[in-house]
């Protein structure tokens, strides 16, 4: 059986022409990505489990898609690079399948290619998942404003010079350095998404170093991917770029302590 299969390095790249198709995406399997997949009209989707992470946030959206009748599953972050749909389709190994996908015979350990064959028979979803609002909100830390965005897609060029915490993964989308961050921020943080295959979950860090932007990733088990406030409140630094090192930020630091170190370095 064959079906229309689309590849999206980010599920936000899905356009209005995907209704009824099956997608493989490099995005994490959290609630926002799942809602985007559902609202785009896809029949079924394969996402990345992002190391599953704290409260299994990396597969929470895939679970939720079963409630609207949509078959969905994730590939293990160690089998395919997050941010690369092609790698997921070619080398991904299924780590989780929701109830609809499991009913088609999809199970952990199966290749993504075999899962795609079975997803060709996926039923059309019963309804659409409710939109998951991604927020932009300011928090105050040490007298400085910190911008918390649940997705890096919410960053704009006008955020240049800001301290930004994003709930997105730290992998380069499609391997493209230009997509590392939309603004020339002072500092930006991401989830390490379990670090994953080829350490891709920290791939934005050197790209941001080239732009002299301090950047860090947070251990996916210390905070929820897709939740910037969680990353600010409970995140633990897992990796940093050289620019962040010069600001006194080190792996193992509590994120709030790392931001205080950044502020102290800026004060001289």
Task: Describe the protein.
There is one protein chain. It is built from nine helices and eleven strands. By secondary structure, it is of the alpha/beta class. The strands form two sheets. The protein has a six-stranded mixed beta sheet with strand order 6-7-8-9-10-11. A five-stranded mixed beta sheet has the order 1-2-3-4-5, sandwiched between helices. The protein starts with a strand and ends with a helix. The mean pLDDT is 95.
Distance between the termini: 64 Å
Output the helix-strand order: EEHEHEHEHHEEEEHEHEHH
Structural class: alpha/beta
Biggest sheet descriptor? 6 strands, mixed
Which parts are unreliable, with pLDDT below 50 for 5 consecutive residues or more? none
Q: Count up the helices.
A: 9
Helix content: 10-25%
Radius of gyration: 18 Å
Structural domain tally: 2
Shape from CA axes?
A: elongated
Question: Beta-strand level of the residues, as a percent range?
Answer: 15-25%
Strand order of the largest sheet: 6-7-8-9-10-11
Mean pLDDT: 95
Overall strand count: 11
Fold topology:
Layout: E1 5-8, E2 22-28, H1 31-39, E3 44-48, H2 60-65, E4 71-75, H3 85-91, E5 94-97, H4 99-103, H5 112-119, E6 136-141, E7 144-149, E8 163-169, E9 187-191, H6 204-209, E10 214-218, H7 228-234, E11 237-240, H8 242-245, H9 255-266
Parallel strand pairs: 1-2, 2-3, 3-4, 7-8, 8-9, 9-10
Antiparallel strand pairs: 4-5, 6-7, 10-11
């Amino acid at each position: 059986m064959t079906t229309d299969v689309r590849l999206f390095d980010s599920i936000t790249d899905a356009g209005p022409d995907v209704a009824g198709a099956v997608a493989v995406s490099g995005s994490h399997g959290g609630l926002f990505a799942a809602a985007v997949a559902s609202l785009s009209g896809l029949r079924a989707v394969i996402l990345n489990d992002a190391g599953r992470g704290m409260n299994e946030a990396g597969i929470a959206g895939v679970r939720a898609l079963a409630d609207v009748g949509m078959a969905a599953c994730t590939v293990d972050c160690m089998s395919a690079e997050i941010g690369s749909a092609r790698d997921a389709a070619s080398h991904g190994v299924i780590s989780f399948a929701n109830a609809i996908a499991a009913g088609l015979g999809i199970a952990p350990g199966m290749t993504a290619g075999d899962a795609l064959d079975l997803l060709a028979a996926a039923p059309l979803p019963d309804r659409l998942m409710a939109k998951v609002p991604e927020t932009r909100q300011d928090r105050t830390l040490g007298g400085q404003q910190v911008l918390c965005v649940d997705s890096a897609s919410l960053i704009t060029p006008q955020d240049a010079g800001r301290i930004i915490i994003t709930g997105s993964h730290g992998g380069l989308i499609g391997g493209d350095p230009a997509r590392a961050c939309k603004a020339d921020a002072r500092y930006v943080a991401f989830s390490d998404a379990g670090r994953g295959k080829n350490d891709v979950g920290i791939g934005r860090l050197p790209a941001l170093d080239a732009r002299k932007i301090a950047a860090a990733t947070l251990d996916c088990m210390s905070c929820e991917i897709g939740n910037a406030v969680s990353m600010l409140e409970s995140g633990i630094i897992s990796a940093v770029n050289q620019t962040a090192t010069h600001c006194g930020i080190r792996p193992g630091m509590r994120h709030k302590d790392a931001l205080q170190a950044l502020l102290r370095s800026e004060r001289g």
